[in-house]
Amino acid sequence: MSLKMMKNTLLVSAFVAVGSFAGISCGDGGSDDKKDAGSEPEDDSGVVAEDGGSDDKPFSFTDYSVVGVLDLKPVAPVHDVELLSAETGKPLDPPLKTKTEAGTGKFSFKDVPGKYRNKLWIHVTGAGPKSEATSTYDSLSFGPIESGDSLIRISTVGTAGVAEATGAFTGKPDQVALGGAVYMVDASGKRIGAVGCAQIFIDDNKTLPMADGDPKTDDATDPNVIRYVGSSGLPLPLGMTAGKSISKTLAGSGKFFIGNVSKGKHTFKVSLDGGNTFIAEQELFVPFIRSEASGDFKGFLVLFGIDVKGKNPTPSDCPTTE
């Protein structure tokens, strides 16, 4: 497939998994009943806890798979996989690394220290030369082990620039983009739906994005770098897009996108009332910038979720399209 054809394909279907480390069915509170195509969670996530779930005992997870972000099909070439702490961004002690199985993309980890339960980044190193559109670039995924998803998405060099084009931002080599989503979880921590009409606040910033468009800076603490994902699955600019405004997550999607985030610890908060109150937050250490990618192409597909417990707070009139 040519680079042009790949980009055209992406405009239709790419980023269906942006922010969706876990594929979910969307439940109550105004969310959509449809599931993301091909991303329905498995009944068995392959998680095995030697002690039945205690935080201080080793655990294992099996039959995870590296898949393409566009088609969710197994990535056949062998890829290196390493676990990192989501609290410090550093490799585990001792380090835990493996390789995917050729042809299936499957991998497993055994005897992971219990203190890292639900506090892991899964880092997949990109494979292939940067000159080839079909080569992959680094993937970094965060999601609780109990989330119900065992698919780790990775993207290709040929589609790397589309999010910048649709979201109207310029990626900086000393920062990295993050794709996220706000999820509902059940009592066990499994993701069961998305939260619509949510707005994301970074660190201590309590200012909403301006309605008139492009960011004035590339600083992640400036709210104007936050984008929300449209019904096409692509991040959109702030303000007016094709005559319609998008300044919150859509019902049935819950997805957002941040074009440039600095390396280090950040807190992502979720509000439904413009920042007066917050319904959830997720603290993460962002361990890499674009130029630090291990693969030949210097880029990252970074996906994470923010989980909300209880009843889905999505307003009944929350739109499903921009």
Notes on the protein architecture:
Helix content is 5%, strand content 33%. It is mainly β. The chain has one domain (3-309). Strand 12 and strand 13 form a beta hairpin. It starts with a helix and ends in a 13-residue tail after the last strand. The model is unreliable at 1-53 and 211-215 (pLDDT under 50).
In total, the number of strands is 19
Major sheet size, sense and barrel closure? 14 strands, mixed
Written as H for each helix and E for each strand, in order along the chain, the element string is HEEEEEEEEHEEEEEEEEEEE
Per DSSP, the total helix count is 2
State Rg.
18 Å
Low-confidence stretches: 1-53, 211-215
**N-to-C span:** 31 Å
Quick description:
The chain has 322 residues and is mainly beta. The chain has one domain.
Supply the key terms.
14-stranded mixed sheet; 19 strands; disordered N terminus; 5% helix; mainly beta; 322 residues
Topology:
Elements: H1 3-13, E1 47-49, E2 59-68, E3 80-85, E4 97-99, E5 106-112, E6 120-124, E7 136-142, E8 151-156, H2 162-167, E9 176-185, E10 191-194, E11 199-202, E12 226-229, E13 235-236, E14 240-241, E15 244-245, E16 255-261, E17 264-271, E18 280-286, E19 300-309
Parallel strand pairs: 2-8, 7-19, 9-19
Antiparallel strand pairs: 1-2, 2-5, 3-4, 3-6, 6-7, 7-8, 9-10, 9-16, 11-17, 12-13, 12-16, 14-15, 17-18
